[in-house]
Amino acid sequence: MSKVAVVTGGIGGLGTAMCKALIEQGRRAVAVDFHGLKPEAVDKWQADRKSEGLDIPVYLGDVTNFESCAEVCKKIEAEVGPIEILVNNAGITRDALFHKMTPEQWDAVIKTNLYSLFNMTKQVYEGMTARGWGRIVNIASVNGLRGQAGQTNYSATKAAVYGFCKALAQECVRKGVTVNSISPGYIGTEMVRAIREDVLQKVVAGIPAARLGEPSEIARTVAFLTADDAGYITGEDITVNGGLYYH
Ligand SMILES: NC(=O)c1ccc[n+]([C@@H]2O[C@H](COP(=O)([O-])OP(=O)(O)OC[C@H]3O[C@@H](n4cnc5c(N)ncnc54)[C@H](O)[C@@H]3O)[C@@H](O)[C@H]2O)c1
User: Fold this and answer.
1) Per the domain annotation, does 193 fall within a domain?
2) Nearest CA to 208 among 183, 191, 185, 181?
3) The ligand 1 atom nearest the CA atom of 186
4) What are the catalytic residues?
């Protein structure tokens, strides 16, 4: 039986590539995404995947809300199977220089990018430790490592990912569960392509690789960290950023 792998933000730019990479690795990928999305957008995403020969169930919920995560995970476990791999990938930006940042921008990012780690991981953790096997991957960012002007909210949440991973990794490695993170640099998804053209050109000029990353380059790292034989890698962060920043 294929292991069930849940990807939050699974129908987004990186999430889609992650679902595909997990399927290639023999997993049963399941996408969890935001219940506020237009149904047509979800239908189109599923139809596009079908045309690629991929059948990926989508469950809608809200990773900022504990009860919603409980409901979604319960449904997935009843309908697809026990969740053995969790990729906490859903994330948003609400950029503003600090002196202009509103409490709403702060809260939205903290809740989506940070509370989500607790809300989703809580639903699957007991099952993973009880079964003696699990893989948890949290998506951080180069801007959590180095900070980024205009992103105090976002940088704070992404830096928090490392503390979460390192602490939880120590609690569960003896139970066969690993907890790691990936810090992507600038990847060519909608989130990044939405950056103003002149600003984006400057960003790319500053990347030693002189290009944006591909979603598949993040996805292959997810596959690597969630592999059956990756059980000795835990509490670690892998940067995938074209040489932009090291730690
Ligand atoms: N694209 C990049 O260059 C880049 C760089 C560094 C880190 N990241 C991180 O990678 C992750 C994915 O980014 P992306 O570029 O694919 O973005 P994206 O906007 O394409 O995808 C994010 C997905 O998360 C979902 N989502 C948002 N709020 C949600 C909620 N409350 N509940 C459930 N789902 C919700 C969205 O609907 C969307 O499908 C994010 O955590 C982001 O911070 C991206």
Assistant:
1) no
2) 185
3) 3
4) 154
